Amino acid sequence: MTAKLALKPTTTFAGATPGFADSPAEARTGDRSGVRLLVAADDGIRHRRFPDLVEELRPGDTLVVNTSATVNGELDAIWRHDDGEQPVVLHAVEGPGGWVVELRAAPDAGSPVLDAAAAVAGTGVVFAPVMLHTGFSSQEAGEAPQPERFEVPAATAQLLNHMKDRGDRVIAVGTTATRALESAVEGGRLVARSGWTERVITPDDPPQVVDGLITGWHDAGASHLLLVEAIAGAERTQRAYDAALAGAYAWHEFGDSCLFL
């Protein structure tokens, strides 16, 4: 059974219903340049497109990306019972050799940051890899994230410690990269580490390394939203979500993005 979180996000949707993207941007528009990017920074809210990301970064920023391959989480199977049929979904790893099966499905999605990589080259912005194999990507409201396998390489730990010492920003590309990094902190410094993480990032247990975050839009009550509030603060997160709802941003894995700085 999935553990419940004692802490709940404070961000509310004020009765608004988000719009959901049911297919990747490249399937809807031909490429990923149409992905919208809301920027929530110290100087306010800006509405941009993902190719504009380079204009929001500065020399010395490090973008930390999760190199885990996307794996199809839906089994080709049907559970037949007295009330009908339901698809069976393999969604989370509990530990070595163990998997959890639930009766729900979620799409996988590629990150539009890949398309921005060429534009970022030569600007002084650095990329650093981590790995975290995700379980089910969108927990129900109040559910803690599942244990997940991760790795932070020695080269990444050394680079980010150096950048932090210089006062540069570490920007995680996704909640998975955030969880991997924050699972490898020891005495306020990153160390090379791999294994299974149960780290849950919340405002009560905030990140020690990550300064900014590129992420999608999460459901009210989701543990991912607690992570966002831990990085950006509750007030900025609420302003961003209010603006996204008012601007009809698309939710979930195939939807639009936000850059919290």
UniProtKB/TrEMBL annotation:
SUPFAM superfamilies named in the record: QueA-like (SSF111337)
Gene3D superfamilies per the UniProt record, alphabetical: QueA-like (3.40.1780.10)
Keywords: Cytoplasm, Queuosine biosynthesis, S-adenosyl-L-methionine, Transferase
InterPro entries for this protein: QueA, QueA_dom1, QueA_sf
Keyword Disulfide bond attributed: no
Biological process, per Gene Ontology: tRNA queuosine(34) biosynthetic process
GO MF terms, alphabetically ordered: S-adenosylmethionine:tRNA ribosyltransferase-isomerase activity
Sections of the chain in a coiled coil: none
Pfam families membership: Queuosine_synth (PF02547)
Keyword Glycoprotein: no
Name the record gives this protein: Queuosine biosynthesis protein
